[in-house]
Amino acid sequence: MGQELNTAISKGIGSVMPAYNANPYDNAGQVYDELFSTYYDGTVRLNNAQSVINQVETIAQGSSSFLSIATGGYAPLSVERINYLAEKRNSDIGAIIGASSLSPHGKTSFANFLISFVALYESDADAISMFNAVIKYEDSIIGSTLLPENDKRILLTTTSIVRYSSYRAKKRPKKNTDPDWIISVGHAFGTEEGAEENMAKAIVEGLVTGIVSNK
């Protein structure tokens, strides 16, 4: 693990974990983490989808970091779609990713990653192990000659958010203000689906789906 971390540092880890500057879309995870912190620092935490959408969108609109990347805007989230994704389980990975806009190779690549990622997350893996697993996959995306550029954009936006979220969920010891956050495949599904549109949508849809799935 130490060697993997040292290698990653030489390749572009930011000054604060879990940044990874080799990912050109890493600001997705950074802004996501900011909105996550703001949401869970609030006193009111409602778990029904419409309330969560309203709260997260309000927080996002008050964030200069979010607004700086949301120049293209995004279509409103669907309550029905959020509830649908939040209820999905590991056995749905093939079907949900298979219905995405990724290329055939991108679908296979991301589905395989999610299967291995979920297995690792559900083990006793720590935050650094999760981080290493994600950046290893990100490196394979960056270096791939088989993935179209749009696939790389979608996948690297998604993995940036997954990396930040899983690191927060696994880091020990937790601060008293940290929620008992559990990564679900629904969270990843929402992030990927949003990333198909743009980075802003990936951040909001991923966070909303994650919150609803943690109710």
Layout: helices, strands, pairs:
Blueprint: H1 2-11, H2 27-41, H3 49-61, H4 64-69, H5 79-86, H6 93-98, H7 104-121, H8 127-143, H9 149-170, H10 185-197, H11 199-213
Helix pairs in contact: 2-9, 2-11, 3-11, 5-10, 5-11, 7-8, 8-9, 9-10, 9-11, 10-11
Structural class: mainly alpha
Report the principal-axis shape.
globular
Radius of gyration from the CA trace?
16 Å
The residue-averaged pLDDT reads 88
Beta-strand portion reads under 5%
The biggest sheet, with number of strands, parallel, antiparallel or mixed sense and barrel status, is:
none
Our count of helices gives: 11
Helix and strand element order: HHHHHHHHHHH
The count of DSSP E runs of length 2 or more, i.e. the number of strands, is 0
* Spans of at least 5 consecutive residues with low confidence: 1-15
Percent in helix: 55-70%
What is the distance, rounded to the nearest whole angstrom, between the alpha carbons of the first and last residues? Answer: 33 Å
Descriptive overview:
The protein is an all-alpha fold. Helices cover 67% and strands 0% of the residues. Helix 2 packs across helix 11.
Question: Could you name the key traits of this structure?
Answer:
215 residues, mainly alpha, 67% helix, 0% strand, disordered N terminus
Briefly say what this structure is.
With 215 residues, this protein is mostly helical.
